Request: fold
Amino acid sequence: MNKLFLTIIAITAMLTGCGRTPSTTVSSPNGKISLNFQVTEEGTMLYEVQVNNKPFILPSRLGFEEQTGMVLANYFDVMGVEFDKEDETWTQPWGENKTIRNKYNEMVVHLSSIDANLTMRFRLFDDGLGFRYEYGYATDGSTLLLTDELTEFNFAQNGVSWSIAADFDTYELPYRTLPIDQVEDANTPITMKTEDGVYASIHEAALVDFPEMTLVKKGNMGFKSNLAHWPDGVKARIEGGTFVTPWRTIQIANEAVGLINSALILNLNEPCAIEGDLSWIRPMKYVGIWWGMHLGIESWVMGDRHGATTQNVKKYIDFAAANNIDAVLAEGWNQGWEGWGDPSQVPFSYTKPYADFDMEELARYAAEKGVELIGHHETSGHIDNYEQQMEEAFAWSKSLGINNIKTGYAGGITGGQQHHNQFMVRHYRKVVERAAAHRLSINAHEPIKPTGIRRTYPNMMSAEGARGMEWNAWSEGNPPHHHVLLPFTRLLAGPMDYTPGVFDILFEKTRNLPQRKKWNPQDKGNSRVNTTLAKQVANWVVLYSPVQMASDLVEHYEGHPCFQFFRDFDPDSDWSEALQGEPGEFIALVRRAKENFFLGATTNQEARTLTIPLDFLKEGITYKAIIYADGDDADWESNPLEYKIVERQVASTDTLTVAMAKGGGQAVSFVPVE
Ligand code: NOJ
Ligand code: CA
Reply:
């Protein structure tokens, strides 16, 4: 680590004048963002932020409340302040970018009260800031019970915001576009654009052994932290003499795409904790026995309509082997689906396949074809049942050549716990750590939201944590603006297993099949995918996941010219850049994987044309560009299937005109010409 040092101990120097309370400031390396911390005469802690020399966050409170009366918010005295700075470059085994620069200025304020020693650690980057609390407290050994976090974010200006409502059990909620002062509560990341045109997103980094933070309205344009809680209402149980909170983060940029190009969340996480060879952690493309169940033409339960039969899985393995797809997921392979959603039934087994699913034979067959199987562990929220079987199930899966497990928590968490409280944050973490011990990667559905843990545990590869493709199968579906909001909100937190790539947009091939049964109460029989076909292709680039699923039935891909993009796509990107975009409106993004580039552009319900300079391509090289575009008369609502494929030779000096239909998009692969 190439650490530059600058430490100034400034105990008395920071008292900025007689009669004033202690106040101290730190700025981002480029000087555009600055944060001031002060303690009032009552010993209450406040911070404020300026962006481009204008107030951005007005004085906002810091601190915690505790059940037995420990004072963690007031009566603090500043004991000292230290400054430091960092400028290093680190690498990760996979990611949007494999090489990341971590450059910040740090201000560490040491405080003391009757009950606690506290260090407030502030880090200012050019792309935002993070701060966290590091408490040591006077204790008789009993557990500290945090009942409230007082952290506030008081915006100086109104503006527009994009978020989902706060909910401690689900993130699968529709996005809302609201003035900042109209947001009653929100989950993070919540993204906003202030009247001055500054883009910002509030989230958290390194959420470990703590409840998730949501925001609740406080004052006119302010928010306060509202943590998920245990069944008894306590928010965090702290054992031992000290605790460190997750980082509270504010990503800040002058352009909306700057938020996407920021690595602040990863930079505020700990380095990789997995030792030795990491080659078992590999980005991959997959297909699976999955969409058929959501459409209602197959079942998870064994019976006439069972999806995960040996024969059907072999068909998927054959398709994967023939089409440059790395892996096959099979849901409904294991015993216990009869009781899904019914707490009185026997819960799932993770080592006992249904009788018509021959695991040994499929493992052998997949290996012979050079394809991996992906395991599936739906817990339905039965945490004890899962934890009891986890070790054995992980070892057994690994012995069958499985490297990747999709987990699921579709159901209420047993014991009155909530998906996002401290109990579950501990559970999700335990799964990742134990999976790492067995050299398995995790793709969690109904997860805890990503907070950059993938840096420390790169086997934490992808997660759901927003409305994904499944909603299109059985509900009113995800509207056209959803896919151009996700990159500016949920995806700022980390990769998402959205599972894009449905080609039978209108369900013409399945809606009237005699075996179709409505299984989801939301199904009104008129569901469909609310995009054009080209947008489905483009979403493979736009909605980043290192494990990317072509989610349609493989028979809908057979012979389809657009599937060539998925064949060619390399999920193991080295470098990425969001080029243009506005939340909820449009986005254009490019990724490089080895010598090839992949561009994805998508729009909301408006048709639009983007002009994209190809200056990201390597100079002096000619590329074959295969363009998967909306047809001239395409329209997500009335004509979603029309597309055209155009081939051109291009170079870095060229400009691409990207015309997108209403609810449409465009995907382009660029391969160097020999
Ligand atoms: C919800 C998950 O998001 C989905 O992908 C899965 O098919 C079902 N649960 C069943 O596990
Ligand atoms: Ca889900």
Notes: Residues 4-267 form a domain with the Beta-galactosidase; Chain A, domain 5 fold (CATH 2.70.98.10).
